[in-house]
Amino acid sequence: MTAALPTDFPAATVLGYPRIGPRRELKRALESYWNGTTTRDDLLSTGRRLREATWRRLAGLGIAVPPSNTFSYYDHVLDTAFMLDAVPDRHRAAETGAGAGAGVGDGDGLDVYFAMARGTGTIAPLRMTKWFDTNYHYIVPEIGPETAFRLADEKPILEAVEARTLGIATRPVLLGPVTFLLLSEAAPGSPEGFTPLERLNDVLDVYAQILESLAAEGVDWVQLDEPALVADRTPVELAAVRVAYERLCGLPDRPRIFVSSYFGELGEALPVLATTPIDAIGLDLVSGGLPADLSALRGKTVVAGVVPGRNIWRTHLDDALNTLRHLRHHVGTVSVSTSCSLLHVPYDLDQETELDPAVRERLAFADQKAVEVQTLANLLAQAPAGDMPAPPARPTAPAPEARWDDRSPYAARAAAQAEHLRLPPLPITTIGSFPQTGDLRAARAALVAGEIGEEQYETQVKAEIERSIRLQEKLGLDVLVHGEPERNDMVQYFAEHLDGFAVSRHGWVQSYGSRCTRPPILHGDVSRPAPITARWTRYAQSLTSKPVKGMLTGPVTIVAWSFVREDLPLPEVVGQVADAIRGEVADLQDAGSTIIQVDEPALRELLPLRSADQAAYLSWAVAAYRHATSVAADRTQIHTHLCYSNAAQVLEAIDGLDADVTTIESARSGGRILPAVASFSRGLGPGVYDIHSPRVPSADEVTGLIEAILAVLPVDRAWINPDCGLKTRTYEQVEASLANVVAARDRMLVLT
Ligand code: GLN
Ligand code: ZN
């Protein structure tokens, strides 16, 4: 084998780090800036403090050259669009600062930046969607043939200089040009067939300028993230990768270039990248395996992502070390890193003083992972040269045979349900949650803090249930809900009531912008020690003669929004959760529920990035859902709910859930999904009220959406409902909006 090539790529690194603040300082700073209670300077100084704390923390943990430009005031994809001046005209109008040339880095462009992210009173924001198969959401840039790219925001350069001023050399991280364009969408009005990737050369002009500026500032290495390369890519896209990196590597004055990939294997993109002159290449060896042919990587520094960046389990150091030694033997120069940015995990396990010690000792949050990376780099340096057999792959037992007890055919069920429920045509229902008031949140906090007792809390929850039932009756809805006031979150609530889960105190992870979630920790075998939801539904039903829908979260969603144990194959974990939910369905039915909804909004999120893996996933995911729901008798109507309208890839699977009624987001995208779901053969409720906006839709507007539904669906299978739960709206907005929904439906009934 060849001797190690000289390299100054750090022996240990992390690809990125959380940015919301260990106590969600950025969330608070953003929200108070948005509502006008603090100034731009307050926000900027919070940003500076968080960046400094991050660099010092990582340096202190042994990460010699920490990454920079991993901070963001909202989202790193938006930062990139903003940096390139890919700002739609409608958002430029929000400019209030110093005018052209002002960036986020110096704060003057913040109003335009936030207009792109959140819209203004009158201007719609850019679309937001999930970042690969994670629960992080990014802002989708709009790129057209005329987008005039230029270096409009020097944030990556300013951050590197800011760190250097503190005495810390950093490695600036940029979203790679190919991934940036692949994640963008064609700007409205672009010619048919235009794809943003056509603009690669113009985008590369700006990247070249940034790389040259970074070199002039004395930056040694730059990290370009290209996670899009782990999904299926066309020959044209692969050719773009070659063009991009040959061009950037050809710059006479540039930092050394590290291209990182994550969330899967590079596959056919590996030989392409490996034959460009890039200096280092990053592989996610946690979600993907080792490349079959390592010889292609010789001459590059391989940055081996062996410390899991997306989960919170401690790394198996022995296995990781063997992988590293094997790699070093075959390729020469190896650095140790996390498998992806640590954006997806909480900061520091040391904040969790209340966790069961037996669970805690199995965990590693971001800071513990940085230490693991450093430990592995030391172990590797001390380990003798020579090959090591690569450790066996993690348990990925073949997906279990899809098995469930079938319910009767839909026609038989529909007849039994019609007879039993006697609903009017075009029945109106909601998706489950009613507004969560400040009082309720305060009561929950007081309960956790021990300031009020269980009984007092329950009284308040019951009062909330009664309030929402009375409102639904007054409005004239047909199928009521209890409103979910007892739930802090649709996943965490179940996690708190099931065995096998733990919940953290400060384990917040950014979901988008200032929004965070605190994923439960699924650490052991899941089971249901006692019934969870039936008593609330029963109470709600005792208040009304209209049917009250029981409300459950589906097994895939519970798992997707948790940190999940890795010592059992995922389908088995989901199967255990499905068992527990099946128990809830049975209990609700026994308690007299005639309609039970099992939500699966995360069904699409777990869809594998490679098309070859998708069918197997969908088959076990659907099987789990059917296992959970097939305990329902014919006359018990099962509803499911999904809240995304770009469901194209999973439509068949949604149909396969075999729910009697499917409610789905539709109003937000103006009914674009309707043609695709028209083929569904059971009940369907495409949303007619966009609950993401505080706006109250008029009865005319809702009528238009109902007409569009009836153009593709027979009246006896159509349901009328909002796009999603009403949790984030106010009672005032909800009452006015639902009144218009009822008025529109009634108008329609007269006509049909
Ligand atoms: N039943 C849940 C609610 O209404 C569904 C939420 C969701 O789909 N994300 O809040
Ligand atoms: Zn929803």
Description of the molecule:
It contains 25 helices and 22 strands. It is an alpha/beta fold. The strands form 6 sheets. The chain has an 8-stranded parallel sheet. Strands 17-19-20-21-22 form a 5-stranded parallel sheet. α11 packs across α13 (366-382). The longest helix has 22 residues, at 454-475. It is globular and about 75 Å long. Residues 1-7 and 98-102 have low confidence and may be disordered. Bound molecules: glutamine and zinc ion (ZN). Residues 431-433, 484, 490, 551, 599, 601, 641, 643, 724-725, 727 line the site of glutamine. Residues 426-744 form the Cobalamin-independent methionine synthase MetE C-terminal/archaeal domain.
Layout of helices and strands:
Elements: E1 12-13, H1 25-34, H2 40-60, E2 67-68, H3 76-83, H4 89-92, H5 110-118, E3 128-130, E4 137-139, E5 142-143, H6 155-165, E6 171-175, H7 177-183, E7 185-186, H8 200-216, E8 221-225, H9 235-249, E9 256-260, H10 269-274, E10 280-284, E11 301-307, H11 317-331, E12 333-338, H12 357-360, H13 366-382, H14 410-421, H15 438-448, H16 454-475, H17 492-497, E13 499-502, E14 509-512, E15 515-517, E16 521-527, H18 534-542, E17 550-553, H19 555-560, E18 563-564, H20 570-590, E19 595-599, H21 614-629, E20 637-642, H22 651-656, E21 661-664, H23 674-677, E22 683-686, H24 699-712, H25 731-751
Parallel strand pairs: 1-12, 2-6, 5-7, 6-8, 8-9, 9-10, 10-11, 11-12, 16-18, 17-19, 19-20, 20-21, 21-22
Antiparallel strand pairs: 3-4, 13-16, 14-15
Helix pairs in contact: 1-2, 8-9, 11-13, 15-16, 20-21, 24-25
